[in-house]
Amino acid sequence: MSKPIEAIGIIKESRSDENRTPLVPEHIKKLKSKYPYLNIVVQPSKKRCFSDDEYKSKGAIINEDLSDCSIIFGVKEIDTRVLMNNKTYIFFSHTYKLNKETLNNAQGTPGMDKKELLKSVLEKKIKLIDYENIRDKNSSRYLGFGRFAGIVGCYNTLNLCLELFNKQPLARAHRINSYERLISNLKNLYFPNMKVLVTGDGRVAKGVIEVLKQTNIKEISKEKFQNDNLDNPVFCNLETKDYVVSNLNKEFDLNHFIKYPKEYKSCALQYLERADVFISAHYWDPASPKIFNQNDLKNLNDLKVVGDITCDVDGSVPTTIRSSTIDKPNFYIDRDTFKETVDEGLAIMAVDNLPSELPRDSSREFGDGIVSEVIPYIFNEDDGRILNATITQNGSFLEKYNYLNDYIKTT
Fold first, then answer.
1. Residue 99 confidence (pLDDT)
2. CATH of 146-357 among 3.30.1360.10, 3.40.50.2000, 3.40.30.10, 3.40.50.720
3. Which of 15, 305, 337, 399 has its C-alpha lying 20 to 30 A from 343's C-alpha?
4. Does the pLDDT of residue 75 top 90, yes or no?
């Protein structure tokens, strides 16, 4: 008889408003079928989007104790108090972007100190693997919640527009808790004349466009977007090549931009000046140019709503002075002072865990990626994707992430 594979675990999330899961019950059944000797232990949770009984019915072991699990999967950062020594943890740590200049700007669990998290991981000799860096040779991510971040972020932004236009807003996405119903609601809605600008060309942007195409808001080219004489609601999607240009006036090359982002500047202002609504759905690196600066806001007289799905506080979209929550997704800022106001000014939607509003749908899609693109490469020969995403091991940062040593030493 073959030697059993060690158990893997699914931890209950530390964040109070996080109800997603890395693997859904149907994934347990698939894994048990493919790996007959694999035990999958699920920590019980009352807030998880799938019940303990649903997991148990598909072959999972429900147990608070994950000490027999060599590999533990989560979604968001894990509370340092429950991290166990010498385990392998896989979750979104939101740490790889950190440096001296971005001490407190990484998105993630409010109140969770990234420095404390990294120090605890090192002290406990944890092998930390970050989903965000499990990528192919072209640096494309194998898995993510991006599509559903785009879907919910677009829905929330359009809902905010309805409020500003004094129209009846739709039911909140987390109340609906169904992608099909969300789309059905939008299809029957009429949006008045407005110009929506979307930045990005990845999963998030595709999710935004997927939703917009179900509305009466029609897509137009960037050239037509700059025409003021439009008599119907429209949107324009700027890909990376459309909103950044080389400082040396070189022809745009995406691979070069990824490697040398500091050699580029934003050219989005000419489009933002024509926009009523801006939906930020692009990936941003701290070394990349900001989409616009605080001073630029003086020229954006038509801009009424910013839906920042990227949600990097003080990142590429300077109006995101803080992240918002599922319960309170919107806030307003004064255009001159950039201070938060009560109910007037520039309207901002900046929820940092948007896929949690459609947790069952988004978890199912995310888990599909874990089953096909992660677990086989953990159990069998790694083609480099897992090693590339491994931040710490045996009490040290791996060479690629050595720069984080400087971060944890800062005060």
1. 58
2. 3.40.50.720
3. 15
4. yes
